[in-house]
Amino acid sequence: MSALQVDELTVRYGRMTAVDRVSLQVAPGSVTGVVGGSGSGKSTLGRAVVGLAPVSGGRILVDGADAKSLRHRGAHPVQLVFQNPYASLDPRMTIGASVAEALPRMPGPQRRDEAARYLDLVDVDPAYLTRTPDTLSGGQRQRVALARALAARPRVLIADEITSALDVSVQGAVLNLLRRLQREAGFAMLFISHDLAVVRYLCDRIAVLDEGRLVESGPADEVLRDPQHETTRTLLASIPARPAVPGGQEAAA
To answer: Most exposed residue of 93, 116, 162, 184, measured as fewest CB within 10 angstroms of its CB?
Structure first.
C-alpha cells in the first residue's frame, strides 16, 4: 500500500485546467520528485494533495484512506512546507508558538519542551523559542517551517521548492537536513522542484509534468539516464555544471 496515492487528479480554475488527470504513488519511506517548468502544475498538485487547491476530479488516498475524509475528522496526515520562508510563518507569533501550534494537545510546559525538541531536530537553537520570524535568516525560517510540519507527525510531507528562495550557500545545508530527517523518520515525501540536479540527489522516483499533465515517470535513475519526453530532456539540459548540493557551510542560517 502506498503512503500517498493520487488517482486521476484534476484541478480546474474556471475554464483553465491546472492539473489534468494526474496519477502517481509515493511508497512509505520513499521520495518522489515532481518536476516541470513554470506553470506546469507541480505546485498546484502539491496544494491539492494537502487540501489547499480545489479538486475537480479524481481521488487522493493516504495509507488507503480518503485524504479529505481524514481532514474532516481532524487528522492532518499530509503537511506542506512552502517555498517562501518569509511568508510561511506568522510574523506575530514566536517561533516556539508556531511549532507548538502543530503539536497534539498536552500541558503547556510539555508543549514548550516538545517545540524545543523539534527546533533542535532541525538544527535551530532551542533558545530561539521566544524569537519572532523577523529576527531569523531565510535558512533559519525554512528550518522552523520544517520543524512545524514535522511536529504534526505527518505520514506524507510535501516540500514545494523549499530551497529556491534561499542563497546557494544555504541550499545545500537545508537539503542535507531534509534528506537526513526523511531517512530517520521514514515519512513519504513529495518533493516539488524545477531543478533536476536537486531531485537527482534526493528522490527515488521522478514524475515530470508539462501543462498540467504527467508526461513521464519512473525510477529516478531510469528517467535521468534515458529520458523519453522532450520536457524531461529540456530540464536535464538546464542542469548547471555544479554539484547537486552546494558545498560549504550555512552562514547565519
So the answer is: 184
